[in-house]
Amino acid sequence: MEKIGLQTNLPGLKTPGSGKAAPLAADFGKALGEILRQVDSTQKQADDATARLQAGEKVSIPEVMMSLEKADISMRLVVQMRNKVVEAYQEIMRMQV
To answer: What pLDDT, on a 0 to 100 scale, did the predictor assign at position 86?
Structure first.
């Protein structure tokens, strides 16, 4: 009877003892970092637009509302992404090996 190992030779996965970071994990980390930077930038733009409106500067109310809605939608997207990642992690942890 042949032994079946749990390790697979999928490209990009870190193998025990190799000491190298997985390229796919690095790409995912970079993509996630970029998304978070974009969300942060959107939030800052909305805060800036709101502050200018409150200061009495000549700012279009629809533009302020659009920036606030963009910030809200981007934040909701990130929260949903986090929820899906946590859900996937919990599902993996429930698997019996």
So the answer is: 94
